[in-house]
Amino acid sequence: MAANAGAGAEAGADVTSPRERYRAQVRSDIKARAWDQIARSGATGLSLNAIAKELGMSGPALYRYFGSRDELITELIRDAYRSLADTFRAAAESGAGLEGLARALRRWALDDPQRYFLVYGTPVPGYHAPDDITTIAREIMAALLDVCASAGLEAPAPASASFTAHLSQHRQWAAGHPAPPGVLRKALAFWTRMHGVLSLELAGHFTGMGFDPERLFDAEVAELTPGR
Amino acid sequence: MAANAGAGAEAGADVTSPRERYRAQVRSDIKARAWDQIARSGATGLSLNAIAKELGMSGPALYRYFGSRDELITELIRDAYRSLADTFRAAAESGAGLEGLARALRRWALDDPQRYFLVYGTPVPGYHAPDDITTIAREIMAALLDVCASAGLEAPAPASASFTAHLSQHRQWAAGHPAPPGVLRKALAFWTRMHGVLSLELAGHFTGMGFDPERLFDAEVAELTPGR
DNA sequence: TGTACATCAGTGAACGCGCGTTCACTGATGTAC
DNA sequence: TGTACATCAGTGAACGCGCGTTCACTGATGTAC
């Protein structure tokens, strides 16, 4: 009757009926088990029947909560994007600088590597994320741009005049953001360098090399940070 | 009787019997189809039966050539590492500078994104690559170090004194390489920055943003390159 | 407060599928004398 | 050159498995009067 709680309402709204609260509870149980499974065997290993068994229900029961396996995975992906966007926005609004944003990103990534990979890992050929996920992705970039803009250009990432021109002419991703090309360049440098360290680290490509990845991460941040 | 041709002998040695040449041919056919399948649906979608069908053979026939599905995948991974190591070594020996190495890496990655992801993408939890693959990985880093060392430190990647000290004390990965810490730092910066751009680009995270990823890649290279 | 009805979570059986892998076999190719 | 034997690529049937998903159903919970 009333508007359905809808996707991702685990937070629990105000005046929910017992049935609605129960539904939300089970939905979130299912998702929790799904994340467990992903952590154990990757996103491909996710099985509805196995989740049901862990929850002590029969397989078909899950279809009361998710239309299909794909729908469940899509919602996990959405939640992952959402959590990073929230993390970024919170950091940006609390006045964190680039180091703060970097630290938040690193914590988010290390906190749950499989969640990181669900967003930034190997894409499944043929899979296209629904539009609203793209919207969240833009939200993430917007928070990054905000922080870069207020950090200013005291420690700029160098760019040739031609690349600078290119950026100022191709700024769809910064739609509505007044940042000058130097800030765009800096945001991109920040973004790619953080992911460079994180993706290699989380995939285990630094194991056995000896050094501490965190110090490498910090060094990369320092290079983009004013009061180094 | 004579030593078996062994793994990855598609290149075709000298005095092979017709049977050995046939075996090598079929092995390479199987791998080719496997790569096709991976390109179409990712490494998880690789199916022995499907490969057999495409080759017009029955499923069990493949077991004459590979002991199991895992063995086939491991060999594809090994080939992927091998091809990058060869690419790097060739570039290093032909006297290419850092830009040359970067271009080679980028070409290698764009040439077959799924091959790139097989090496640098989301790891399968629980999978451990055999030792010889680790050896190839070290070979890749060695070639990178060679090029960085001969490029010198005219455009150094900045590092705090403490990080420099850390690197000179944790250089297992550069075992046997006389490069000073500044060169180590530069090699790591090169490595992570290139992968930062490439992994985001190949995973499609730049689509719709407007700018040309290649120019971003070039800008990142330029920053690490002397005669910019 | 009690009765009649609607909603809806969950079950169990079943479907069809494709998977990796084994096994005993056939028949062609190569080798030894 | 021909015969006897060994090697080995490939087949077809079969096994057991777990998967996603559908369907008709039971029984508990909530709602209306």
What report would you give on this structure?
Two copies of one chain form a homodimer. Chain A has 228 residues and is mainly alpha-helical. In chain A, α4 (98-111) runs parallel beside α8. Residues 1-13 of chain A have low confidence and may be disordered. Chain A is 62% helix and 0% strand. The longest helix of chain A has 25 residues, at 69-93. At the A-B interface, α1, α5, α6, α7 and α8 of A face α1, α5, α6, α7 and α8 of B. The structure holds a DNA duplex (33 and 33 nucleotides).
Structural class of chain A, by secondary structure, is mainly alpha
Radius of gyration of chain A: 20 Å
Biggest interface, chains and residues, is:
A-B, 57 and 56 residues
Q: Tell me the major beta sheet of chain A.
A: none
Annotate the secondary structure layout.
2 copies of one chain form a homodimer.
Chain A lengths: L17 H24 L6 H8 L13 H25 L4 H14 L1 H8 L10 H21 L9 H9 L11 H22 L10 H11 L5
Helix pairs in contact in A: 1-2, 3-4, 3-5, 3-6, 4-8, 6-8, 7-8, 8-9
Chain A binds a DNA duplex (33 and 33 nucleotides) through helix 1 and helix 2.
Summarize the structure.
The structure is a homodimer. Chain A has about 230 residues and is an all-alpha fold.
Supply the key terms:
homodimer, 228 residues, mainly alpha, disordered N terminus, DNA-binding
